[in-house]
Amino acid sequence: MGISLFPEDGQDAEAILNQADSALYEAKKRPFGVAFCNKQQAIHNKRRLIIEQGLRKALVEPVIEHYQLFAVYQPLILLPSQGLGGFEALMRWDHPDFGLISPAEFIPIAENTGLIFELSRWMLKTVCQQLVKWHDQGFDFKRVSVNLSALELMSINLADDLLAVITDTGAEPKWLKFEITETALMAIPEQSIDILQKLIQADIHVAIDDFGTGYSSLAYLKSLPATMLKIDQSFICNLIHSAEDQAVVKAVINMAHSLGKCVTAEGVELQDQLDFLIEHHCDVAQGYYFSKPMNADDAYHKYAVIINSMDDGAH
Question: Any alpha helices (H) in 87-217, and if so which ranges?
Answer without folding.
Answer: 103-113, 116-136, 158-169, 182-187, 189-201
